[in-house]
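Case study.
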Amino acid sequence: MSEKLTHFDAEGKAIMVDVGDKQSTSRKALACGEIRMQQATLKRIMDRNIEKGDVFGIARIAGIMAAKQTSGLIPLCHPLALTSVELEFNPLIEQGCVEISATAKVNGQTGVEMEALTAVSVAALTIYDMCKAVDKLMVIGAIRLEQKSGGKSGDFSRPQDG
Amino acid sequence: MSEKLTHFDAEGKAIMVDVGDKQSTSRKALACGEIRMQQATLKRIMDRNIEKGDVFGIARIAGIMAAKQTSGLIPLCHPLALTSVELEFNPLIEQGCVEISATAKVNGQTGVEMEALTAVSVAALTIYDMCKAVDKLMVIGAIRLEQKSGGKSGDFSRPQDG
Amino acid sequence: MSEKLTHFDAEGKAIMVDVGDKQSTSRKALACGEIRMQQATLKRIMDRNIEKGDVFGIARIAGIMAAKQTSGLIPLCHPLALTSVELEFNPLIEQGCVEISATAKVNGQTGVEMEALTAVSVAALTIYDMCKAVDKLMVIGAIRLEQKSGGKSGDFSRPQDG
Amino acid sequence: MSEKLTHFDAEGKAIMVDVGDKQSTSRKALACGEIRMQQATLKRIMDRNIEKGDVFGIARIAGIMAAKQTSGLIPLCHPLALTSVELEFNPLIEQGCVEISATAKVNGQTGVEMEALTAVSVAALTIYDMCKAVDKLMVIGAIRLEQKSGGKSGDFSRPQDG
Amino acid sequence: MSEKLTHFDAEGKAIMVDVGDKQSTSRKALACGEIRMQQATLKRIMDRNIEKGDVFGIARIAGIMAAKQTSGLIPLCHPLALTSVELEFNPLIEQGCVEISATAKVNGQTGVEMEALTAVSVAALTIYDMCKAVDKLMVIGAIRLEQKSGGKSGDFSRPQDG
Amino acid sequence: MSEKLTHFDAEGKAIMVDVGDKQSTSRKALACGEIRMQQATLKRIMDRNIEKGDVFGIARIAGIMAAKQTSGLIPLCHPLALTSVELEFNPLIEQGCVEISATAKVNGQTGVEMEALTAVSVAALTIYDMCKAVDKLMVIGAIRLEQKSGGKSGDFSRPQDG
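After joint prediction, the assembly is written out as follows.
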C-alpha cells in the first residue's frame, strides 16, 4: 500500500488526476452489490415480473443511464466514452435478497470501476424506490469491485473471502 | 403489508405516481450507510484531513449535489424543490469504517427518502473514488432509511435492530 | 388568432415569459404521436415482448425521464415540479404503426404541453434506437397536443379531424 | 432483415451494445423532419425573423444542444464526442410547413443517427413551444433518417419514395 | 456585517441552508457584467447581427438555459422554479465593451441572485466562445449584483460607486 | 485579424464547427480570474479555512465539475473527454481579492479554453454564493485566457500588459 491518495496534489488540493499520458487501452470493470428486503416484497416483485410490471427491467435502464452520468456525479471522475454497460439481477427468494452486478467497458486512458459501481448503486436505489411503499426496511449493501482489467496497474480480482 | 407496488398501474405499466392531490407538507428523511475499508486507508484519510486534502469535505459536496439530481437518476422519482440537505461522516478507525448519514427536507407533496438515500450513496462512491488507488477492497453497505416524517402515511423510525 | 408570439419582448428579444403572476392551478396535458415501421419490425417487437425484451417498457421509462428534463431541452420552457407522467403504447400490427400517448400533470403557474410532447418524442426516438439495426425506414410523426386543461386560457381539445 | 434487435441479449435483457471492437471511423448522419402549422403562424414567424425575434435561430441552438445530450435521453445510446452538428430550416409558406434537417458527425465506433434525429425532434419541439400561444394545432412529423455513412454496415440513403 | 457564512454549520461543515421555514415571496434579482474586446471584434459582431449571425441572440439563450441549471452548478444553491429570466446586451463600440444584464424572478423561499449572476456569466462565456477565433484577449468582468428584492433581509440596491 | 467568426456558416447560421479533420493533439489551456470583496469578508473566509469551513475547497470542486459540463452550457462547444482539471486560489488579503486560475487538458481535436474559463467562472460564482450573506458588493472580474498550447493555430501567451 505504497501509493498515495492520487486525487490530491502535494499541497493537499483536490485535482482531477492528469491521465493524458496514460495509454489508451481496452478496460473493463465488474462491480456487484445487493438489496435485502422482506421475502414477501421480493415475491411481489417476482410475481409482477411474471405479469408485466418489470422492476428489474426499469432498474437495469436506470443503472445503464447512471453509468453514463458518472463523471457528473463523482467530482473527480474523468468523462469517458463508455463502449458497453450490462447489468444482471439475481433474485434469491429464500434470503430475501437481490444480487446486482454491472459490467462497464471503455477504450480509454482510465478505468471504469466508478461507472460499474455507480450503475449498481443506482439500480439498487431504483428497486428501493419502486418497493418502498410496501417495505421501508430494505437495505442496500455489499457494493464492491469484483474484477478490473486493462491499464498499467494490472488486473484485479477480488479475493474469494473479500 | 397491504399496499401495492405503487409505481405500476393496474396493467403493470410503470408510472410516475400522481401526487397532485397529496397535501403539501413539511417532509424530512434521514438515511444512513457506511463504507468499510482497510484501517490503513482510513488513517490516511484522517491524516490528510489533518493536513489539507479533505476527503469528507468533497464527499459531502458530492452528496449534496447528487441529492439535487435524484429525479434525473431514479426513473419514477418526482422533481422536488429541496429546502435543505446535510451530510455527516463519522469515521470509526478501529473498525475501518466511515458511517455516513444524510438528512433531506422539502415542503412538498411527496417524501424525500430517495434524495437522502442518493446523497449517502454518492457520498460513499466519492470516498471510494478518492481512495481506490490505495485500497480496492472497500465495500459500501448498510444503506437504509432511518427516519421519515411528514406526509399522510405517518412518521417512520427504523426499529433498533433493523 | 390575436395573441402574439409570447416568447419575444417588444424588441424581438427572446425571453422566458414571466409567469409569476399567473395562478397556480392543477394543469394537465395529453400529447400523442406515432412511429411507423415495417410490419415485420413491429412483429419482432411484439414477439420479444412476449419473451422478455421489453421495447415499450424501456421507451416508457425514457419518455418519463425526458418529461422531467423538458426545461433543460427547450430553451424558453419553465422548470416545473411535475406531479405525474404516464405513457401508453398502442401497437397496430396491420398498419405497422405504434401509437404513443403521454399525459403530464402539474400544480403550477404554467402548462405542461411541452412535457407531454417531449415524453412522446423521446419515447418514439427510443423505439427507433432499439429497432434501427433491423429497420432504417421507420418514420416518427403525428406528434401533437390532444388535450389541455387548467390555466386561464381555458381547456383545449383537438378537433376530431385535426 | 436478418439482423436481430441488438439492444437485447440472448435472454431478452436490455444492454448498451458493446462497440469496443468496432473500428473508429468517420461517421455522418442526416435526419429530417417537419412541423406543420397554420399559414398565418408561419407568416408570423417569418415576419418576426425579418424583425428580430429569431424563432429558427433559437430552434437551431436547441437542436445543437440536444444532439449533445442524446446519450442522456435515449437509454441505450453510447456517449459520443460529436465533431459537428448543423441544422437547416426550410419554411414553405404555402403549405404552412417548416422542413428541418440536421447533420451530425463523429469520429467514433458507432453511428450518429440518434444524434441527428434528436436534434431535429428538439428543434421542432422548440418551434412548437414558441408558437403554441397562437396555434395549438401544429403537428410535428416525418422525422426520419435520410442518409448515413461510415461504419461497417455500409452507407444508407433513404429511397426516394421512403 | 454581523451575519456569518451561512453555508457552514457550527462545526464548519458545508450545508445547503435550510430555507424550509422562510416565507415564500415574490423575489427578483438583477445582475450585470461585461465582456471587453478589441473594437474590431465588436464591430464584427455588430456587422454580423446586421447580417444574420446573431451572437447576442445565442448568448441570450445560453444565459437563460444556464439560469435554469444554477443549482446543478453551484454546490449549495437550492433548486428553484424560476418564473422569469431576461437578458439584455448593450454594445459600446467606442469602448470595445458589451454590457450584459440579467433579471431573474421566482416565487419562492430563497433569492435568485445566483441565477441572475450565472446567466450573465454564461452569456459572457458564450460570446467569448463565438469570438475567440478572432480575439484571444477578451476579458470578462464586473460581474456583480445590482438589485435584489423580496425576502426578509430587505431590498438591496448597489451604491452608485459600487 | 483575418479569421472570421467560425461559429457561423456563410449564411450566418450558427454551427458547431466541424473539427473532424483536425488533428488529435495534446492541448492545454490556462485561464485566470478574480473575485473582489471587502477585506473583512476575505479574512472571514481565511479564518474559516483555518477552522474547517473550506470555501476554496468547495469552489475548487464546483470549478472542476463545471469544466466537465462546459459543452452542456456553451451552445457551440464540442463535448470533450478532459484528461485533467486543476484550480488554484490565491487570496490577497490586503487587496480584498482572491485570484483564481484553472488549467484544463485534453488529447483531442479542439482546444480547452472554454473549459478552463468555465471552471474559473463557476468557482468564482461559488465563492460569491457562500459569502453573499455577509457581502453583497463582491465583484467577479478579469476572467481571461492566459495560455494555450497544442493545435495548429500555435501556442498563445497573453502579453504581460494584457
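Observations recorded in class. The beta strands of chain A are 25-36, 84-92, 97-108, 139-149, 156-157. Residues 102 and 137 of chain A are 24 Å apart (CA to CA). We will return to this complex in the next lecture.
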